[in-house]
Amino acid sequence: MKTIAIIDCAIDEPSLACYNRLLQLGFPVSYHSACDFGMGTLQNVDNFYGAFIFGSISNVEDDEPWHRELASWALSALKNDFPLLGICFGHQLMCHYLGGQVVKNSTSNPEQKGSRQVTFKNQFGDIPEGEVLEFVVSHSYRVTDLPNDFEEVAGSIFPNDIVRHKTLPFVGIQPHPEASDHFIDTEFEDAPLNKENAERTKIDGIQFIINWVKSYCLKDADKSFSELTNR
Question: Within 10 Å of residue 188's Cβ, how many Cβ atoms?
Fold first, then answer.
């Protein structure tokens, strides 16, 4: 069965709750741990529609061996027209390796935690220019400068919350559209999200993911997978 590969970059607690959320919603996903087991299970990209590169408490500046292995695999896959969605750390890692700049947030507000409204500056699938969606955020680093072969899709108090490459099938998103109830409860245990905001982030997050799937993964999808995106 062909799947979307979930590439987990967690170095503490595996992101199984977020993986299970996507699975329970009907996405054909499979689980792969980049930091624990490397890229061996992902060598045959023909087995996958594309891949999500999840977040991590590891940062690009750590320059771990598994960072380099993951980035090398991802760059090769992109050049073979393999769709990738980088989320938080995955967004930063790939923007870094594709020529962008990743910086630490200012000392006055080093860690962004909570939810954030993001305004779309360009159309993304069925999401029109000017649309505002709300996402969960939890990050201490962000992407600033982009090379000319990128464009900003959406921004907020920070630019480049969502970006895409102009010629390669890569999209990066700083927030967490995949966030599960467990993710929200544990990440914001000391300052819980308002229930209404938490529910909105889950709805908007899946809307974004479905639009990524529609834009990048349906060219060779079977009928059942195509029906998933008609929500």
Answer: 16
Q: Parallel, antiparallel, or unpaired for β 132-139 and 112-120?
A: antiparallel
Nearest to 140 by CA among 176, 162, 113: 113
d(CA 18, CA 185): 12
- Total number of domains constituting the chain: 1
Instruction: Please give the average pLDDT of every successive group of 10 residues along the chain, which has 231 residues.
Output: 94 94 96 93 94 95 96 97 97 97 76 88 97 94 94 95 98 96 90 92 97 87 58 57
What CATH number is associated with residue 182? 3.40.50.880
Alpha helices in 11-112 (DSSP H): 16-24, 34-37, 65-79, 89-97
From CA 108, how far away is CA 118, in angstroms rounded? 21
pTM of the model: 0.93
Structure tokens, 157: 């108090």
